[in-house]
């Protein structure tokens, strides 16, 4: 008997989260909780040099409504050769246009999709595949504004966004994020069962086995996985992770 065919390739997106001009990692979204990792440009460049094809670049200060690293992030996007998903504080026309103008491949809307549904629908209609929506989840309740507020029911919001033509979802289990205790595979399966749009998994990846487990969900609708703390803490290398994810 021949061995079963491996799952299709999983896209990996190393994360560079920026706070106060520095690369950081948070635990469950708590400021100052996960350590600082220096110059965000050097972090981004290192992931590119190690084979990344995507980068998940986050302005944490903008996400929490306490400032902005906009010019710094725009400079990083402009100097990289790989695709960038830009996230954090994109919640109105001005911030969306500024984010798209960096040349990033797509933006990730968070709080705005919960607090201003009409604007979100218009942004999805105008920009299509360049707009993803971040669904940050505790149980089946969405977390908004840097994870400090409840944002409504996951399934109701997913149904609404599907109806508006949302192209892609970035799904984070807030309770898993930065904890290095494994992803919430059940949540990912359930989201995939309720939408035909691709899903990017975020939160909890701590081992190469976790990446393999998420890769097995690719046939169900998971397209990619964001990896942060595990890479920065040396749990595995990015080249090894890319191999497990099925890079050619």
From TrEMBL:
Keywords associated with the record: Amino-acid biosynthesis, Cytoplasm, Histidine biosynthesis, Isomerase
GO CC annotations, alphabetized: cytoplasm
Reactions catalysed: 1-(5-phospho-beta-D-ribosyl)-5-[(5-phospho-beta-D-ribosylamino)methylideneamino]imidazole-4-carboxamide = 5-[(5-phospho-1-deoxy-D-ribulos-1-ylimino)methylamino]-1-(5-phospho-beta-D-ribosyl)imidazole-4-carboxamide
Example GO BP: L-tryptophan biosynthetic process
GO terms, molecular function: 1-(5-phosphoribosyl)-5-[(5-phosphoribosylamino)methylideneamino]imidazole-4-carboxamide isomerase activity; phosphoribosylanthranilate isomerase activity
CDD domains: HisA
Database matches in SUPFAM superfamilies: Ribulose-phoshate binding barrel
Source organism superkingdom: Bacteria
Enzyme active site: 17, 136
Pathway terms, separated by semicolons: Amino-acid biosynthesis; L-histidine biosynthesis; L-histidine from 5-phospho-alpha-D-ribose 1-diphosphate: step 4/9
Enzyme class: isomerase
Enzyme Commission no: 5.3.1.16
The keyword Ubl conjugation is assigned to this record: no
Cellular location(s): Cytoplasm
NCBIfam families according to UniProt: hisA-trpF
HAMAP family documented for this protein: HisA
Family: Belongs to the HisA/HisF family.
Name the record gives this protein: 1-(5-phosphoribosyl)-5-[(5-phosphoribosylamino)methylideneamino] imidazole-4-carboxamide isomerase
């Amino acid at each position: 008997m021949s061995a079963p065919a491996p799952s299709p390739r999983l896209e990996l997106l190393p994360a560079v989260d920026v706070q106060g001009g520095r690369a950081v990692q948070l635990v469950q979204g708590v400021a100052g909780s996960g350590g600082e990792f220096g110059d965000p440009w050097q972090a981004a460049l290192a992931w590119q040099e190690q084979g990344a094809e995507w980068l998940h670049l986050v302005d944490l200060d903008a996400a929490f409504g306490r400032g902005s690293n906009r010019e710094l992030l725009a400079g990083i996007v402009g100097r990289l050769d790989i695709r960038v998903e830009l996230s954090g504080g994109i919640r109105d026309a001005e911030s969306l246009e500024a984010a798209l103008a960096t040349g990033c491949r797509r933006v990730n809307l968070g709080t705005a999709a919960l607090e201003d549904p009409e604007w979100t629908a218009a942004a999805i209609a105008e920009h299509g595949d360049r707009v993803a929506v971040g669904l940050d989840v505790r149980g089946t309740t969405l977390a908004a504004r840097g994870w400090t507020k409840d944002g409504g029911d996951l399934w109701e919001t997913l149904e609404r966004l599907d109806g508006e033509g949302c192209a892609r979802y970035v799904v984070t289990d807030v309770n898993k994020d930065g904890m290095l205790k494994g992803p919430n595979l059940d949540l990912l399966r359930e989201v995939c069962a309720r939408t035909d749009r691709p899903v990017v998994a975020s939160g909890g990846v701590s081992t190469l086995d976790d990446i393999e487990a998420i890769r097995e969900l690719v046939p169900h609708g998971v397209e990619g996985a964001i990896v942060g703390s595990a890479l920065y803490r040396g749990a595995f290398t990015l080249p090894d992770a890319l191999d497990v994810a099925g890079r050619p």
